[in-house]
Each structure stands twice: as structure tokens, then as C-alpha cells.
Amino acid sequence: MVVYIWSLNISHKDSSELNQSANVSSGDPPGSHPGVSRTGHTVIAVCLGFILVFGCLNNLFVLLIFARFRSLWTPINLILLNISVSDVLVCLLGTPFSFASSLYGKWIFGQHGCKWYGFANSLFGIVSLMSLSILSYERYTAILRPTKADSSDFRRAWLCVTGSWLYSLVWTLPPFLGWSSYGPEGAGTSCSVQWQLRSTSSVSYVVCLFIFCLFLPLMLMIFSYGKILLIIKGVTKINLLTAQRRENHILLMIVTMVSCYLFCWMPYGVVALLATFGRRGLITPIISVVPSVLAKSSTVVNPVIYVLFNNQVRNPHRGLRCKKHIDLLPVLNCSMEQRQREDIKLFSKKLYEND
């Protein structure tokens, strides 16, 4: 038998999976998922509470630093600021919903709350992912520019920030228009895209979301930071004394940033694909909850990483004393900038001649 929902063909097996969504649509909260115990819901609530508190504190701290020190307002740092804004919005407008529901043991905010939660988490999450990849590319292109970056020219940075939000909207609005849908997921205390549906519409949406919002940003990060590492290695060969320490710092930065990206987001993407293409019942409620919590933990991890590896943010007073303040790389400082730029320009020329 075939059931038609939003003019899409969904098999009879899918209709049973939608019954839980129907509970939300009727305004009644779905019951606690039979696969998760009361203890399980409590553990999830504790994890979400930790993410909620420290995600807010970490990102608000970064925002306060930017508000306090105008010297940090550079084009590249504006993209870093966009990451903190999107992360704090997740903590304030998304995580409290799932935290309260986990304490209660079931979703308690009805149909509209479920759709809002799924949309908001997807919107802010994709903005953060795109900003991370754009930041890596901007750092790479900053090294290749033949002249000193204009710290007063914010047009390119604002274009990147605006583009990340528009791009995210392009991929998060379709579920409201009939291309897939938002509904309960995992333990029944949170909502997201309906990964488990097997209709052509839902499957195509999941695949596109994985490719364009997770895989391609990851490839851009690997390409950009890989190129940066090659340039730094070349500088090390040219001037060992001034570049060896910087190379080690850049290598640590690249490994940490890419690893955290994979740790926080890749499990969620993999589980979504398994739920879409794997056998039914393969993804249990507990298995689906873990990647969701890891993805939300990025709101805690991102500000720590980008403050830890950014001398400008860690030492904002240095920017006040430095007239030529450029964030080519997060570990460059003002006193080394001109000499390093000459080394980088020299090696960049040799690099492209060899290519």
C-alpha cells in the first residue's frame, strides 16, 4: 500500500515511522522511546547541560573579547566571530529544548517546537561548518596575496559571512517546502531531518546534505591547510631558524582543527547515511544519540581551539601596540610578520614554478 504525504510516495513501512511524527503534529508530545531508559535520558540531559553551560560561556567570552578590543576587528577575524555567533545561537535557541525534553524523558514542545528545533540546529550548524571551511581558505589565500592585506577592507569578509548564512538557508528551508521533513529523532527528545525515511525525496536530500554541507567543507579545509603546511615547510627549508617553530605550531593547528571537525561532525553524517541506506533497525536510539551530542559539542570545542591557536585573541593588547596587524596565520605575531612575509613570498614563487 502506498501512502501519499506532501505529494511524495512513501512506502507503508515508512508510514509507521511517521506515526511518531504524527504525535508531535497533533500537539501531543511523543512518549519516551522504549530503547532508552530513565537513566539513559538522565545521562543525555547531563551531557546536554554541560554543552549548554560551557558552550554559552566559551562563546560569550570570545564575543566579549571582540567587543572589548577593537584591534581584533580584522576581516579574517570577522569570520571567526561569525563562528562564535552561530555557536552561541545553537546554545541559546536550540540546546535548551533537547535539554528540557531529556529531563522530562520525551519531547515536550509539540509540533512547531520540533520543527523549529530541527531547523535552528541545522541552520546554525551549517553556518558554523561553512565558516570553518571559509576561514581555512581565507587564511590560505591571505598568504598568497602579493601585497599587505588591507585590515580596513571588510567587503570580502562580509560577503563570506553573508554567503554562509544564505548557503545554510538554501539547505535548511527545503524540509518546510516538501523536500524531506523535520521530525523526532533518536531517543525522542530531539528533532532533526527525518533520516530514516526511504522515499526518493528524503534519500536525495540526505545525500545532498552530506555532500554539500559536510564533505565538501571538509575537503576545502584539508586542501587549504594542506597548502599552508606545504608553504611553511618550504619556508623552513629556506630559513630554518625563523620557521621551524612556526611549522610545528601550524602542524599542530591543522591536525587539531581537522581532527575536531571529524570528531564532532563526521559521526553524525555517517549515522545519517546508515539510517538512510542501511537495514532497518541498524541504528538504535542510543547509537543515534551519541553523534547528535558530539555535533553539539562543537559549540564548546570551536572557541577553545580558535582562541588557543590565535595570538591576536590570546594577547589582544599586542594588537594595540602593532600598527601592521594582520592575521595571515593564527600563530604569526607582529614582530615576525614582515620577515616571514618575505620568506613566504619567496617560497610561494618557487612552489608554483615547480608545479
What features would you highlight for this structure?
mainly alpha, Rhopdopsin 7-helix transmembrane proteins, two-stranded antiparallel ribbon, disordered N terminus
Description:
By secondary structure, the chain is mainly alpha-helical. It has one domain: Rhodopsin 7-helix transmembrane proteins (Rhopdopsin 7-helix transmembrane proteins, Up-down Bundle), CATH 1.20.1070. Helix content is 73%, strand content 5%. Strands 1-2 form a two-stranded antiparallel ribbon. β3 (182-185) and β4 form a beta hairpin. The chain is globular and about 55 Å long. Keywords: Chromophore, Disulfide bond, G-protein coupled receptor, Glycoprotein, Membrane, Photoreceptor protein, Receptor, Retinal protein, Sensory transduction, Transducer, Transmembrane, Transmembrane helix. It is a multi-pass membrane protein. One of its GO terms (biological process) is phototransduction.
Q: Which helices and strands occur, and which strands form pairs?
A:
Blueprint lengths: L1 E4 L2 E4 H14 L12 H31 L6 H19 L1 H10 L5 H35 L10 H18 L1 H4 L4 E4 L4 E4 L6 H39 L1 H38 L7 H12 L1 H11 L2 H4 L1 H6 L15 H18 L1
